[in-house]
Design goal:
Helix content: 10-25%
Shape: globular
CATH architecture of the largest domain: 3-Layer(aba) Sandwich
Oligomer: single chain
Largest sheet: 7 strands, antiparallel
Order of helices and strands: EEEEEEEEHEEHEEHHEHHE
Structural class: alpha/beta
């Protein structure tokens, strides 16, 4: 679905409460967790996206610049009925392919420059909420690169708050260029440390083979190291797979998971079963 096809008619006022850098100081990219309160009529669930309307380029008649962001925390209602939530934003820049000039991304720089008390407009929500497995012995495999970890941060908090009787397994595969690019899992902010002592949870890093030279994440090394367990789980009826991040991650994962399964035929049969039963969930853009 193209951004221009999204319904922007439901617009809500929001106010920034906090903005903090969550990428390491030495990391090449600035990534911020931005918390804000939204008009009480707004509602959103874990796994959904919200839209942000940044000021557009008036010189070309653009009223607003629309972008989607996953919620990065469990939404909370305040005493006065407003909804408090947060998003994870990477400050982006783009290189003009003709001039070679570097330009700031409109929405990301607008959001990263916001200060507490500043106002903004949000739309949505969009997409389906993450399905919560009914089985207490389910296996959950979460796969995300970069800011794709944001919805999993919210999902983990929601899951452990709502399902204290859960006895299954949760595996998180988190991709990045280098260890400095791992979000919510560094010395700046390490929310996932809350779960490291749980027997049900493990996190694995999938880092680039050529940091700074390639945007491809080395999913193969991380997944092949646990190939026997992955192969068994992917074929079982109580396994749920959640994928978040840039759309290209799907093709990368298909290649690796076909190797884990033993062939393309086996993997795509498993994937078709997962999709048909609502156990394969994509939150990609």
């Amino acid at each position: 679905m193209r951004l221009e096809d999204y319904d922007l008619s439901r617009r809500y006022d929001a106010e920034v409460l906090d903005s903090r850098r969550i990428s390491a100081a030495e990391a090449k990219d600035e990534v911020r967790d931005i918390q804000f309160e939204v008009d009480g009529r707004f509602d959103v669930q874990v796994g959904q996206n919200i839209g942000v309307l940044a000021p557009g380029r008036q010189e070309i008649g653009q009223d607003h610049h629309f972008r989607l962001y996953s919620i990065a925390d469990v939404p909370q209602r305040t005493d006065d009925g407003k909804l408090r939530l947060s998003i994870c934003v990477r400050r982006c820049y783009y290189i003009d392919e003709f001039s070679g000039e570097r330009y700031p991304g409109i929405a990301s720089n607008y959001l990263c420059d916001l200060k507490p008390g500043d106002k903004l407009t949000v739309t949505g929500p969009y997409g389906q909420a993450f399905p919560i497995p009914a089985e207490n012995d389910a296996t959950l495999i979460m796969i995300g690169a970069g800011t794709g970890i944001a919805p999993f941060r919210a999902f983990m908090k929601h899951f452990y708050q709502q399902r204290p009787d859960f006895q299954g397994r949760i595996w998180l595969f988190h991709g990045g260029d280098t260890g400095l690019d791992l979000l919510y899992r560094n010395r700046e902010v390490d929310d996932f440390a809350l779960y490291y002592d749980r027997e049900t949870f493990e996190a694995f890093n999938a880092l680039s083979e050529r940091p700074g030279w390639s945007e491809t994440t080395d999913w193969a090394a991380a997944m092949h190291a646990r190939g026997e367990e992955l192969e068994r789980w992917l074929s079982e009826p109580h396994t749920y797979v959640y994928v978040a991040g840039l759309e290209r991650i799907i093709d990368e994962l298909d290649l690796v998971l076909a190797e884990v399964a033993g062939s393309n035929r086996i993997w795509f049969r498993w994937k078709d079963d997962l999709k048909a039963e609502g156990r394969w969930v994509e939150l990609v853009y």
